[in-house]
Amino acid sequence: MNGFMRKAAGLLLFTLAASSFALSQRNPRATSKLDVNGKFVMIEYGRPSLKGRDILALIEPGKVWRMGADKSTTFTSDGRLSFGKVAVPEGTYSLWLKKVGERSFDLIFNKQTGQWGTQYGSIDDVASVPMAFSEGGEAVEVFTLSLVRGAKTNAGELALQWGKAVLKAPFTVK
Question: What's the pTM?
């Protein structure tokens, strides 16, 4: 087992060990994993429900949102990723969403991890990636992040779904 897999296994064990803490929170935690061209990519996040709100519309342009609920969302990869022209080194990051315009959002990778979801500091930002916005047909009640395989063997896509909003950021593994 390589060093990254040991770290990933440790993160999974930590997640399981923290399940009693997670159960005390109002929002369940979820994990999305993907193997792309022999490299491991994983997201661990809180899943709030809409409860009749339009959360993405409530975010003001220029503001950063925690991308989930409770503890910050964690993104881990053991490979160097490229989101278009933006490179993201292998490692573990917290993920944030910045509203740039009415239907325009950036995905932010931040070096600080493990913090409560409202404790964001831009000084630790590593990369900012534009996300493609579209509107889905049926509303998704529970916030969902997913990692899906791309058309090429070295490609994947990070997708966010909540309400009718669908945000996507395709990537390749180097």
Answer: 0.83
